[in-house]
Amino acid sequence: MSNNKKEQERTELHRIIWNIANDLRGSVDGNEVKYLAENVIDRIRKAEQEADETIRAALEKAGSIVEQAKKDAQTSVRDHEAAAQAAAAEKVMAAQEKSKAALEEASRDLDAQMQELLQTARARQPEAVQKIIKALV
Known about the structure:
This protein is mainly α. It has one domain (about 5-105). It is about 95% helix and about 0% strand.
């Protein structure tokens, strides 16, 4: 509640109390009216203080909740980042496995081609020797 509004309410309350006191003047002792007015004002002040304390406590609690929410959000972000890194690592490992398999297949194909060339060379060896001998003679 703003101070201006409190002052307006307090002024209105004083006006009401003085009007009541004026109506009762003569039938009720002034000290008794003063005592009642002070008692009402004290109760109002006490209620305002309790309300202020309640608001202060609620604000502190809200601040704690906000801080915990920030921490939870940071933890969540870290968890998501870790999960994303793990997923990326899995994809890299899968790509490495595919590359390894492709290299192994290429190596087998190369070995097979080398074997064919060796067989072809061995099969043509006698013919090549004959050509060399003819060339020398």
